[in-house]
Design brief:
The protein has 74 residues and is an all-beta fold. The protein has strands at 19-23, 26-30, 33-44, 63-72. Strands 1, 2, 3 and 4 form a four-stranded antiparallel beta sheet that branches. Strand 2 and strand 3 form a beta hairpin. The termini are far apart.
Length: 74
Amino acid sequence: MPGVDEKKTKTVDQFKVLAYEFNCPLLLVVNNITLTTTPGYVLPQNLLQVAGHPELSEKGENSFYISLGIKYEF
């Protein structure tokens, strides 16, 4: 019948890792100033795949990022 939505539910009793993330915080302290940087790399795992509907499937890619910060102490 057109216009009828169908829901499917699947119960899983097993833990699966969603992503692995690696990072390495670095600090540089000069007098009262602290500079911080944290480069990181993310590897997504167990992405949702919908058979026959690639537009509904997750498209995870490995990602590299850097967080920067500065702190001044009085």
